[in-house]
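Protocol step 4 of 6.
Sequence for Pentatricopeptide repeat-containing protein (Zostera marina) entered exactly as in the expression construct, tag removed. Do not edit the line below.
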Amino acid sequence: MSLLLPSIPWTTKIPTLMSEKLTMKAGTVTMRDRSKNRKPLQKGRNLSIEAIQAIQALKRVSKASIIHDDVSRGGGGERESLETVFRSKIRRLVKFDMMAVLKELQNQNEPYLALKVFREIREEHWYNPQFSVYSDMIRVLASSTLLKEAEQVFVNLQSEKKTFKSDINGFNDLLTTLIEFGFLESAMDCFHRMQDWGLEPDKTTFRILIKEFEAKGKVNFSSVVKKKAIECYGGGLEFLVEEEEKLAQIQFF
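Step 5 output, structure tokens:
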């Protein structure tokens, strides 16, 4: 026995998107891609989340011209905002992160921001001066034609009261940077201060100074360095030729 159900006619129409006309007011919304204004933070630099956030905050509130006023004259319209970032982000970083922030800003070609962080680092209780850090800071500034700022950093180096880390390789890098950007007198001053910094010149030190001073016509500087080289190694400075041959072989291969 089958049960017959009465058929119920469907009288209600269900509207569909196809049957309904939806009208929208046309408009165009454009958004500026802010990421195009800055280089991406590169992977593999061992940056912590705190360091990345600090870098992004600094770059977000800063413009080069305003930072220049803040650094050079102690004023500027963005000073309060920068101070807020330094207080809330930078000064809370541990040593490793703060040094990483400095290095990344240098790699990102942000000389003014890097200089501010460098000055902040020099005020930290854990700070110990390093020739390599000074070399990098001077190079970044000089590469951006900020020669006065680079000279001031060298003045900071001369006035350091804390003991430099004994690092002849970092010292030689500093000499190379100074000479490359025309600070020949500063390079010679560093050479005279080596004993005060607990350093002894090696063959690379002499090669850099003698070769570059002679190439730039600073015969008086070169003569002083040669005299010291003879005292250390004697003879006719054959090691200079040996070093040149080694470098030529490395470049060839």
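Step 6, annotate. The chain has two domains: 46-127, 130-253.
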